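sorry for the late reply, my laptop died twice this morning and i had to redo everyting from scratch. anyway the thing you sent over, i finally got around to it. pasting the sequence first so we're on the same page, its 177 residues, then the predicted structure underneath. double check i copied it right bc i was rushing
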Amino acid sequence: MHVLTAIISIISVFIWGKWSDWKKYHSTLLFFALGNLVYNFLTANYFLWRMDADFISNHTLTELLYSFIVFPATGLLFLGNYPEKGVVKQLLHTLQWIAIYGIWEFVFTLTGHIEYAYGWTLGWSIVALFFMFPLLRLHVKKPLLTYVLFALVCVGFLWLFDVPVHLPVEDRPNYRS
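ok and here's the structure:
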Protein backbone atom coordinates (compact mmCIF):
# COMPACT_ATOMS: atom_id res chain seq x y z
CA MET A 1 0.00 0.00 0.00
CA HIS A 2 2.87 2.40 0.75
CA VAL A 3 4.61 1.67 -2.53
CA LEU A 4 1.27 2.20 -4.28
CA THR A 5 0.93 5.53 -2.44
CA ALA A 6 4.34 6.58 -3.76
CA ILE A 7 3.44 5.53 -7.31
CA ILE A 8 0.13 7.41 -7.17
CA SER A 9 1.95 10.48 -5.79
CA ILE A 10 4.50 10.39 -8.61
CA ILE A 11 1.82 9.97 -11.30
CA SER A 12 -0.31 12.73 -9.75
CA VAL A 13 2.54 15.21 -9.55
CA PHE A 14 3.44 14.52 -13.19
CA ILE A 15 -0.16 15.19 -14.24
CA TRP A 16 -1.19 18.05 -11.93
CA GLY A 17 2.06 19.37 -10.45
CA LYS A 18 3.32 22.83 -11.34
CA TRP A 19 6.80 21.79 -12.38
CA SER A 20 7.71 25.26 -13.55
CA ASP A 21 7.43 26.44 -9.92
CA TRP A 22 9.43 23.67 -8.24
CA LYS A 23 12.31 26.03 -7.35
CA LYS A 24 9.86 28.39 -5.65
CA TYR A 25 8.75 25.56 -3.34
CA HIS A 26 12.03 23.66 -3.01
CA SER A 27 12.84 24.81 0.54
CA THR A 28 9.26 24.12 1.67
CA LEU A 29 9.39 20.60 0.22
CA LEU A 30 12.61 20.04 2.17
CA PHE A 31 10.85 21.41 5.28
CA PHE A 32 8.07 18.86 4.70
CA ALA A 33 10.61 16.02 4.54
CA LEU A 34 12.43 17.42 7.57
CA GLY A 35 9.21 17.37 9.58
CA ASN A 36 8.78 13.65 9.01
CA LEU A 37 12.42 12.93 9.79
CA VAL A 38 12.19 14.98 13.01
CA TYR A 39 9.10 13.01 14.04
CA ASN A 40 10.90 9.71 13.44
CA PHE A 41 13.98 10.89 15.33
CA LEU A 42 12.14 12.30 18.36
CA THR A 43 9.77 9.35 18.71
CA ALA A 44 12.28 6.60 17.95
CA ASN A 45 11.28 3.46 19.86
CA TYR A 46 8.16 5.30 21.09
CA PHE A 47 6.25 5.90 17.86
CA LEU A 48 2.82 7.47 18.17
CA TRP A 49 2.00 6.07 14.76
CA ARG A 50 3.93 3.71 12.61
CA MET A 51 3.59 2.74 8.97
CA ASP A 52 3.68 -1.03 8.70
CA ALA A 53 5.99 -2.17 5.95
CA ASP A 54 4.54 -3.85 2.89
CA PHE A 55 6.87 -4.50 -0.06
CA ILE A 56 9.56 -2.48 1.62
CA SER A 57 11.27 -4.50 4.29
CA ASN A 58 10.99 -2.19 7.32
CA HIS A 59 9.57 0.93 8.93
CA THR A 60 12.68 3.04 8.34
CA LEU A 61 12.71 2.46 4.58
CA THR A 62 8.96 3.05 4.43
CA GLU A 63 9.40 6.41 6.19
CA LEU A 64 12.20 7.37 3.80
CA LEU A 65 9.80 6.62 0.92
CA TYR A 66 7.36 9.10 2.45
CA SER A 67 10.00 11.70 3.34
CA PHE A 68 11.61 11.84 -0.08
CA ILE A 69 8.86 10.85 -2.53
CA VAL A 70 5.31 11.04 -1.18
CA PHE A 71 5.57 14.22 0.88
CA PRO A 72 7.54 16.29 -1.65
CA ALA A 73 5.22 15.15 -4.47
CA THR A 74 2.02 15.91 -2.58
CA GLY A 75 3.58 19.09 -1.21
CA LEU A 76 4.22 20.30 -4.76
CA LEU A 77 0.62 19.45 -5.65
CA PHE A 78 -0.73 21.33 -2.62
CA LEU A 79 1.48 24.40 -3.01
CA GLY A 80 1.58 24.56 -6.80
CA ASN A 81 -2.20 24.61 -7.03
CA TYR A 82 -2.78 26.85 -4.01
CA PRO A 83 -5.07 29.76 -4.94
CA GLU A 84 -3.23 33.08 -4.65
CA LYS A 85 -6.42 35.03 -4.00
CA GLY A 86 -9.68 34.38 -2.28
CA VAL A 87 -9.73 33.33 1.36
CA VAL A 88 -12.62 30.93 0.76
CA LYS A 89 -10.78 29.27 -2.15
CA GLN A 90 -7.63 28.99 -0.04
CA LEU A 91 -9.56 27.50 2.87
CA LEU A 92 -11.35 25.01 0.60
CA HIS A 93 -8.06 24.02 -1.03
CA THR A 94 -6.49 23.38 2.38
CA LEU A 95 -9.55 21.45 3.58
CA GLN A 96 -9.44 19.38 0.39
CA TRP A 97 -5.88 18.30 1.17
CA ILE A 98 -6.69 17.60 4.80
CA ALA A 99 -9.53 15.38 3.55
CA ILE A 100 -7.28 13.62 1.01
CA TYR A 101 -4.68 12.81 3.65
CA GLY A 102 -7.31 11.93 6.27
CA ILE A 103 -9.21 9.57 3.98
CA TRP A 104 -5.98 7.97 2.78
CA GLU A 105 -4.92 7.34 6.38
CA PHE A 106 -8.38 5.97 7.18
CA VAL A 107 -7.86 3.42 4.40
CA PHE A 108 -4.51 2.57 6.00
CA THR A 109 -6.27 1.91 9.31
CA LEU A 110 -8.79 -0.37 7.59
CA THR A 111 -6.09 -2.32 5.77
CA GLY A 112 -3.68 -2.55 8.71
CA HIS A 113 -0.97 -0.42 7.09
CA ILE A 114 -0.69 1.96 10.04
CA GLU A 115 -0.57 1.36 13.78
CA TYR A 116 -1.28 3.84 16.56
CA ALA A 117 0.10 3.79 20.10
CA TYR A 118 0.29 5.81 23.31
CA GLY A 119 -3.06 7.51 22.76
CA TRP A 120 -2.57 8.62 19.16
CA THR A 121 -5.56 7.97 16.88
CA LEU A 122 -6.78 8.82 13.40
CA GLY A 123 -8.51 11.80 15.02
CA TRP A 124 -5.18 13.13 16.27
CA SER A 125 -3.70 12.65 12.80
CA ILE A 126 -6.45 14.84 11.39
CA VAL A 127 -5.78 17.47 14.07
CA ALA A 128 -2.10 17.39 13.04
CA LEU A 129 -3.11 17.92 9.39
CA PHE A 130 -4.85 21.14 10.42
CA PHE A 131 -1.42 22.34 11.55
CA MET A 132 0.62 20.75 8.76
CA PHE A 133 -1.00 22.20 5.66
CA PRO A 134 -1.23 25.81 6.89
CA LEU A 135 2.39 25.57 8.06
CA LEU A 136 3.46 24.37 4.61
CA ARG A 137 1.80 27.37 3.01
CA LEU A 138 3.19 29.75 5.63
CA HIS A 139 6.69 28.37 5.02
CA VAL A 140 6.55 29.65 1.43
CA LYS A 141 5.95 33.21 2.67
CA LYS A 142 7.59 33.31 6.13
CA PRO A 143 9.97 30.40 6.69
CA LEU A 144 11.53 31.63 9.95
CA LEU A 145 8.14 32.15 11.58
CA THR A 146 7.15 28.70 10.36
CA TYR A 147 10.14 27.07 12.06
CA VAL A 148 9.20 28.72 15.36
CA LEU A 149 5.56 27.64 15.05
CA PHE A 150 6.61 24.14 13.98
CA ALA A 151 8.82 23.85 17.07
CA LEU A 152 5.93 24.96 19.29
CA VAL A 153 3.55 22.44 17.69
CA CYS A 154 6.15 19.68 18.09
CA VAL A 155 6.75 20.51 21.75
CA GLY A 156 2.99 20.57 22.30
CA PHE A 157 2.49 17.12 20.82
CA LEU A 158 5.55 15.71 22.60
CA TRP A 159 4.20 17.02 25.91
CA LEU A 160 0.60 15.97 25.24
CA PHE A 161 1.60 12.40 24.41
CA ASP A 162 4.35 12.18 27.02
CA VAL A 163 7.03 11.20 24.52
CA PRO A 164 10.13 10.39 26.62
CA VAL A 165 12.63 12.50 24.69
CA HIS A 166 14.65 12.78 27.91
CA LEU A 167 15.46 9.06 27.69
CA PRO A 168 18.00 7.54 25.33
CA VAL A 169 16.31 5.64 22.53
CA GLU A 170 17.51 2.30 23.85
CA ASP A 171 15.86 2.99 27.23
CA ARG A 172 12.44 3.87 25.85
CA PRO A 173 9.60 1.37 26.03
CA ASN A 174 9.20 -0.72 22.92
CA TYR A 175 6.69 0.54 20.37
CA ARG A 176 4.57 -2.57 20.29
CA SER A 177 2.71 -2.38 23.55
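Helices lie at 2-16, 22-42, 59-80, 87-111, 122-141, 143-160.
thats about all i looked at so far, will dig more tmrw
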